[in-house]
Amino acid sequence: MKPKQRWLVIGGLLFATLLAGYFADDDAVPEKGKRKSNAVAKTTTSASAGEKRRSKAGDKAAELAAAPLSFPEPAVASEEPETAAIDPFRPKTWFVPPPPPPPPTPKAPPLPFLYIGKLIEDGEPRVFLHHQGKQMIARVGDLINGVYAVEEISSGQMTFIYQPLKEKQVLAIGTDK
Predict the structure, then answer these.
(1) Of 15, 131, 133, 138, which is most buried, counting CB atoms within 10 Å of its CB?
(2) Is residue 121 part of a domain?
(3) Using one digit for the tens of pLDDT, what is the confidence trace for 122-177?
(4) Which domain range does residue 7 map to?
(5) CB-based contacts of 42: which residues, under 8 Å, 6+ apart?
């Protein structure tokens, strides 16, 4: 494309832009506080002038052209802002609190037995215990109240297993004689 042709195209586009700006309707967007009354008045006057011209062509076409177009009214901006103002001087921090500590692991309650005495019968030790106001005799392999199993009796101690947690507990029963 030659420079002369390029200037003619650019000049033609400039002229078309200026012409469109001159003939454009300035009240197409209503201003704040004003209603569509100015725009409606202009459309009705131009519609009535157009109606006179088209009356010869046909009444039906004139009715359709003169019918006002209905557009939804734009929402009016409220005076108050919907969001609260952000304070630019508010304190800011990157601190993230640590997660809460894990819950403690469950532990067996203290042994509810009181040692009374010991007896060795047929080579097998038996221990006399006091529990909740009752006396009982325990030996290896017994299950007491469905909660404590006697695992071992030897060298001055009695080993129980707390069944719900499978935890070992030891009760001192004196020395072997």
Answers:
(1) 138
(2) yes
(3) 989 999 999 999 999 999 999 999 999 999 998 889 999 999 999 999 999 987 65
(4) 3-66
(5) 25, 27
